[in-house]
Amino acid sequence: MASIEKRHTKQGIRYRARITLKGQPRLSETFATRREATRWAERTTEALRSRRFRPESEAERRTMGDLVDRYIRDKVPQLARTQPNRRNLEWWADQLGRDTRLSQITPASIASARDILATGKGLSGKPLSPSTVRRYLTVLGSAMGTATKEWFWMDDNPCTKVRRPTEPRGRVRCLDGDERQRLLAACKESTVELLYPLVVMALCTGARRGELLSLMWQDVDLDRGVAIIHHSKNGERRSLAVTGLAASVLREWRVRHLGSDPVFPGRCGKATFPHKAWQAALETAEIEEFRFHDLRHTFASYLAMSGATLAELAEALGHKTLAMVKRYAHLTEGHTMNVIASMTERFLAA
Which pTM does this prediction carry? Predict the structure, then answer.
């Protein structure tokens, strides 16, 4: 016999059809309307009685909405970029259709959605860069990979057959000596007192903006010259060397903000980046085409020109591989040449 149960869920009212026949497996399925549930129950009951019923696979039973909801609940909290991954997955669910069966999702449908991202219908409504499109595909591939290998909802991952756009060469914009002096002077004169120590820390440590804004005083040891970042972009803990100008500025800053847990306190306890003050400082310093993240590039470039190897650059910037620091390779050529010359002089002299 078949029964229809009305259920109240987060997605609204749903109707679950149950079928129980002697000598047959118990079956159930959920639908958006009672009519759909009734029609499914009638067709399935008839198929069971005539021995024509073929049990649905998990990919036929599960939907894109099921996959995204479970992945966001169980896996996204473990990722370093929690909020962007959640938003990107919701976009995929809307674009591919939350009610679309996983068995109906093909490499072609994913590729079509990928092309939509590149032409201006992402979350922002603007064309997305190849790097951003790759991040969208990465999180979808991860979700479908989990559904394939851990949940056994899919036989294979269709995302692996979709070509990802080629990333452009990394942008490197650095401050020269005059620009650095003008920018620091403008930040020091800003009415937003947070700006100067924030810029100094970024320039002297190479830390990302978010890492600095989330830094707590209990993670800073000025006597040892170390600050600990517990949640970096790649999800790993790393140390910042706080020395020289950064150490002196931070000592003075701490005296002025005794009793605050965040190093850079905001109005509601959590620091927010002062966009207007930053743009005003750039205008005062007459610096063009420069972003706050370029302070990180400037730090890396200064480090490379001081003789650091690519491995040392990767360690200082918190990169797991050398791929991200190869953009600075030309700046380390002088150091490499000196090392080679020293080796040949010692072992291969004429």
Answer: 0.60
